[in-house]
Amino acid sequence: MSASYSASWRRGNPRLLLLLLCTIWSTTGLLVQAKVHYHKWDISYKFKSPDCYKKLAVTINGQTPGPTINAQQGDTIVVRVKNSLLTENVAIHWHGIRQIGTPWFDGTEGVTQCPIVAGDTFVYRFVVDRAGTYLYHAHYGMQRSAGLYGLIRVAVPDGVVEPFAYDYDRSIILNDWWHNSAYEQATGLASIPFVWVGEPQSLLINGRGKFNCSLAGPTAVCNATNPECSPYVLTVVPGKTYRLRIASITSLSALNFEIEGHNMTVVEADGHYVKPFVIKNLNIYSGETYSVLFTADRDPSRNYWLAVNVISRKPETPTGTAVLNYYPNHPRKSPPTSPPVGPLWNDTAYRFNQSYAIRSHPDHVHPPPLTSDRMIILLNTQNRVDGYTRWSLNNVSFNMPHTPYLIALKENLRHVFDQRPAPETYDYRNYDIYSVPKNHNATTGTSIYRLDFNSTVDVILQNANMIDPNKSETHPWHLHGHDFWVLGYGPGKFDPEVQPKEYNLVDPIMKNTVSLHSYGWTAIRFRADNPGAWAFHCHIESHFFMGMGIVFEEGVDRVGELPTSIMGCGDSKSLRRP
């Protein structure tokens, strides 16, 4: 419980206190004092060389990745954020934290809050209500790709036993890295002619990679001996079993992760226990988190590679590496082999099969509702809008209004976004997903999807060909404020009269981020039971920047009084009180 609530207990009626203690004791068998964790962060630009190439990065207290937040289920997190970027706003999203009762602290600029302007301080306060592995990252412009990100690790309550055993708990976070600034990338995406961000220069493991400095330009500063870019080292004791939490915060790349010579057992996905299955390597998409178990049972006289490779896009980025160090070998002793190159980048069937394998642990199944109240089908396409290249859903490319949706909805500011309903489907009977769109043109919009509170909603994500022929990209989709059931995946076109009969309603995994594979479909189901306004978008940074997202509204009338600290932009300026 929070510190303030604890204080109210101490001042309150002794009989009430005894009653509450007895209630807790009788329902749980143990009394757990939830903690409040305070963090003070200063967001600023610093020169960093995570892959040996020196460039400006957005940092937290001078570091990227930022500090890992460690807590226990039920604890409260308080983060005091000072924006010292001087000329840039900021907002931080707590990815995978459902923000039950605190939708205004979801950290999504334009949806749940105004940005934190340069020089200002903002305090986030929320409860971590579920154990698991989560993320935090910038949710303003394209700052995530500039280095503002980190891990959240939430332990189970005292006395709770997880359905797997291990000796040690370790974490890594994966990222892709560009030498161009986020400003340069965003400007190119919003220009005519269109300038794509290109493939990343490096892949980072725990913020460390290795760029070939011989490829750096004559004016660049690139130092291969800089300790900032020395490989990350994961030291293990022979014979011990490790839980490795793996998170991807990439801005573009789908990745494949491998521990050279070691099998891994998948046990957790996005904070939910998985029916264990063994893999040689793990496909992980931006915004996803997994826990795997592995045992240090190989030749202890040598070290091994941790390797990440790009999949689903033709790789132009070298393998990202770290070192699995078998104690007592020297941690800087290089493995005697070449780093693993991973599976074929365009093996879509392989990626589908791994997605199919992710199911709920038999002892931790959360049964989905057997039917839904509403089905929304979203066709993902690349389009042109007034000559600009955009991404669209059902031919509408999303634009963020200047007044955040949560504020507009709660304060009844109906004029700040389009009140017409967003399109629920597309002409799925006649649309050819394998061909270049006959009509490249789309429109922009600010409409949202209004959901009946406590209703059950199916969302079908349908992939299709892009503007270029024979090209369909993988899209990782993330839903704020909820976990959803993944009911199915499939190649080709989704037919609402056929595919629902094939849904997995027995043991579907629950997640907050899911992949939409090339030329395929993904079906999810969720309950609209968390009052607020919630973004649902492609987690590829440039795709969301180019319009690949929507907003759900549910039960806003049940949301409490909004803190004025989230106001101050658009038409909310007049609502902010000193």
UniProtKB/TrEMBL annotation:
Cofactor(s), names only, from the UniProt record = Cu cation
| Oligomer status and interactors | Dimer.
Task: Please list every transmembrane segment annotated in the UniProt record, as residue ranges.
Answer: none
| Signal peptide, first to last residue | 1-29
Write down what this protein is called: L-ascorbate oxidase
Classification via CDD domains? CuRO_3_AAO
Coiled-coil annotated spans: none
